[in-house]
Amino acid sequence: MTARTRWIVAFAGALLAAVGLSAVGLSAVGLSLGSASAFATAGHQSSAPHERVRVMTLNTFYGGDDLDLATEDFCATPNGCAETLKQIERAIKDARADIVGVQESERNTERIASALGWYGSDRAHVMSRFPVINPPGGNGLYVFVEVAPGRVMAVANTHTPSDPYGPYLVRDGGSPRDVLDLERDVRLPAVQDQIDVLPRLARQGIPVTLTGDFNSPSHLDWTQAVADARPDVPFAVKWPVSAALAKAGLHDTYREAHPDPVAVPGFTWTPGSPEADPHEVDDRIDWVLRAGPSRTIDSTVVGESGGPDVGVGLSPWPSDHRGVVSTLEVEPAVPPVLVAPATRSVTIGKTLPVTYHAPGKPGERVALLDRRGRTAAWQPTGKTGRQDGTVALPTKRLRQGEYDVVLRSNGGKVLSKTQVWLYPKGEPTRVSVGKSTYRTGRPIDVSWSNAPGMGLDWISVFACPKNKCEPNSDYLVYTYTGSRIEGHGEIGPDSIGAEDSWPLKPGRYVVRLLPDDGLLSVAESKVFTVS
């Protein structure tokens, strides 16, 4: 939890946009290729193995490189504390994690994964020592992790809005009704997509984990017994986020391992930070949840050495949250039929690796189709029809634009489909507005192309007084791209920050595209006028 609240409204919607996933070692999206190739082992249809995996959730505090470990304050230079990022890596190693859901990663998920020799996705904010696969239909809400040859589990990660914070409302005299109204309005909508989608995967026999900084206590913690024991918990609360996820079949692994919240509170908020509240309250707001064919073996807090209930300690601790790591026994599943390109943004002339899981019948092929449905390139899955493998599609002399990557049967039926975009070498990221002049109060239409496609890419308006535009930290009203590579949107009265910045005052402005909830812009529009 931090004071930054840019994603209060838009986070859930951003997750539901078209997905593309990066893996370390590839130019942009990554699947498990090479020596750790996804679906590379034949005979995986045998009885499902049981695998033990350690799943961790970790909020890295502004990307993991903005905290000075020596001063316990912000770095003098933004993103300037590389030694803190090293400490994040050490925390993951010490926790012996296999899969990590990261919050506040700010472009650093793949960077951390690369340092660990892992696979990572800046879009899904998931990293793993196992191959990571982007399934069509996952829509950014979950990815597959291949924990055994040819068998997967689904991993989702989330970060709900931080403000207003429910326990502060209780601390300041809010009633149980006040708290429930707040949570149902601010945080419950942010997990509705997980509630709608993840249980369906579990019912299909796929193990599911959901990690996150939920910015909410659990209904399993604020019980009457806890209220009787803790002065800072004046009454029991059935916190809506945790209750709704539990009702959907997502089990809290920490409470399964430690069922008594009085004896083992397991606080993850907070070991302290530059933004610490002088009247802070402690709580357990970082969770590892599970569903489907799985069971909890154990779970522990990862945090500062000697901290309360900390089972894996590290000093100095590099975040304002403690993490949680849970050991699960899972029964990984054979994935559904899928085709998964190694990147959503392809440089023309380079080959595009595509991983597939097919029915395994003769004549099946992976193809690249242009917008008119014409085949631009294709490769067979094998003479006799292989179920699993990777093919390389050539892109030489193809035109810039959007293409479909498809898995086709011998009869031409499309069995799976997803999108990629082709760009010439050196093509920049672009962002633009539709007009040079807008009337006060009229929405600003924005377009972008060749965007990074990270999980929290955003476009914001910046004022340009006296022909000099404000720095990235002085953002006004903004919207998220939904992690789309190309797209159109609108910034207006319903956008984030509109309560303080809309309507725009008469003057000169630009819009900028900034990757992954960070303050580094990669594209800027021409100046436009509001009059």
Protein described:
By secondary structure, the protein is an alpha+beta fold. The chain folds into 3 domains: 11-31 and 50-330, Deoxyribonuclease I, Chain A; 338-423, Immunoglobulin-like (Sandwich); 430-530, Immunoglobulin-like (Sandwich). 15% of the residues lie in helices and 31% in strands. It has 10 helices and 32 strands. The strands form 7 sheets. It has a 7-stranded mixed β-sheet. A 6-stranded mixed β-sheet has the order 7-8-9-10-12-11. Strand 22 and strand 23 form a beta hairpin. Helix 2 packs across helix 3 (109-116). The longest helix has 13 residues, at 82-94. Residues 3-37 and 40-46 have low confidence and may be disordered.
Instruction: List low-pLDDT spans.
Output: 3-37, 40-46
* Beta-strand residue fraction: 25-35%
CATH architecture of the largest domain: 4-Layer Sandwich
| Secondary structure: helix percent | 10-25%
Structural class: alpha+beta
What value does the average pLDDT take? 90
Compute the gyration radius: what is it?
Answer: 23 Å
Strand order of the largest sheet: 5-6-4-1-15-13-14
Count of DSSP H/I helices:
10
Total number of strands: 32
> CA-to-CA gap between the ends?
38 Å
- As for the CATH topology of the largest domain, it is Deoxyribonuclease I, Chain A
> CATH class of the largest domain, anyone?
Alpha Beta
Largest sheet: 7 strands, mixed
Query: Which descriptor suits the 3D outline?
Result: globular
Instruction: Look at the structure and name the CATH superfamily of the largest domain.
Output: Endonuclease/exonuclease/phosphatase
Q: Please indicate the count of domains.
A: 3
